[in-house]
């Protein structure tokens, strides 16, 4: 049976943890913590401390903005804090943000991410020395972590869009995470062909690899309200140059170009929903009545092990996000 995961929202960390508890009570499988306006590990720590059963993951933590050793130690600490419930989700981020926001290189992202995972696993495995040479390297002697781990290794999930990174996820990770706009047709035609190459390259069991799709899920009695709430999410991604080819291939290249121009002209990235037609919202988000949303979620079942659902939040007042999240969690609790 496909798992329903949640990316909880809160105006404060306390409210976010309350939402994670509500997701746990609704039967959600994992609460994922994103990294944009908050630190993903800190958010994951708050969720881990405030819940008892639900899985906890970073969805995602930036892989290059931290040293791989610090990432490994953070993952081990979070797994201990959560009692073995933690999943380390890593992503490259886009080049401009790595360089301009975090002052770190992002060249050769496939090799750099491969090295990151190798170093994380080497640190968690222990031993002396710890050494790895590549685009990212480590050389540690005379150090050993003195605390018993919750588990021997932390499951690692890689977020990936392009075929090279998707193949890498299938080859070396325990699971794959999508970005928020990943409809079933993309899973079928773009993701699974590349994942299968990576999984089969190592002779791995596909049944032991966790495929986590993601979707903005906007639930409302009025489908028009649901689409309006989700439009800014689609508009945000439409303005990001990294996704331009995806939108163009789906026939929405002109909308993507318009969103990019509006962003360069000074429009806030979370306020571009008015540029997004309803058909584009329906193409990339789950938006509608509870019955309509449940039917859309069910379309992922043959292709994914889980769907990470997030309420619409971009450009909305806090009270409206709360209402949207309440409706989403009610939907999760009502589904088998």
TrEMBL record:
Pfam family, one: Bac_luciferase
InterPro entries: F420-G6PD/mer, Luciferase-like_dom, Luciferase-like_sf
Endpoints of the signal sequence: none
Limits of the Luciferase-like domain: 11-301
SUPFAM superfamilies: Bacterial luciferase-like
The entry's keywords: Monooxygenase, Oxidoreductase
UniProt keyword annotation of rRNA-binding present: no
Bilayer-spanning residue ranges: none
GO MF assignments: monooxygenase activity; oxidoreductase activity, acting on paired donors, with incorporation or reduction of molecular oxygen
PANTHER family found in the cross-reference section: CONSERVED HYPOTHETICAL ALANINE AND PROLINE-RICH PROTEIN, PTHR43244
UniProt name for this protein: Alkanesulfonate monooxygenase SsuD/methylene tetrahydromethanopterin reductase-like flavin-dependent oxidoreductase (Luciferase family)
Species: Actinoplanes digitatis
